[in-house]
Amino acid sequence: xxxxxxxxxxxxxxxxxxxxxxxxxxxxxxxxxxxxxxxxxxxxxxxxxxxxxxxxxxxxxxxxxxxxxxxxxxxxxxxxxxxxxxxxxxxxxxxxxxxxxxxxxxxxxxxxxxxxxxxxxxxxxxxxxxxxxxxxxxxxxxxxxxxxxxxxxxxxxxxxxxxxxxx
Length: 167
Fold this sequence. Notes:
Number of strands: 5
Order of helices and strands: EHHEEEHEHH
Number of domains: 1
Mean pLDDT: 92
CATH class: Alpha Beta
């Protein structure tokens, strides 16, 4: 693997990056053959990703003004550990920048971001068919947790859950 070159820089996402973030998510969906699952809009990223109540944070890797990679993440808390951490929702590296260490650099930057805020762990999920990502994660110490299983409620299931009986 080639190492990250000095002409690639990582910076925090800003409101004007909503279009680039959206484009990266669309490209990730296409790359995983799940483009039909991506329903977000540029406005969603503008509205929920910035300001005092931002639902997520983002880091962008750039080379000569071009997007090289994106990491979208948010703080989490472990009740068992009694410590904050960070959850990486999306990690994307543009094809021509793969193998240069961009993904690893983004993950290291997110871990440092969390550590600076008292965090001591990082979690993420990966598509079962995304073997290159799984190899990267394992190589840098992000291991698969055999005892965890992700569950989710979307669409009608979420609406029913949110609208169900209140205690």
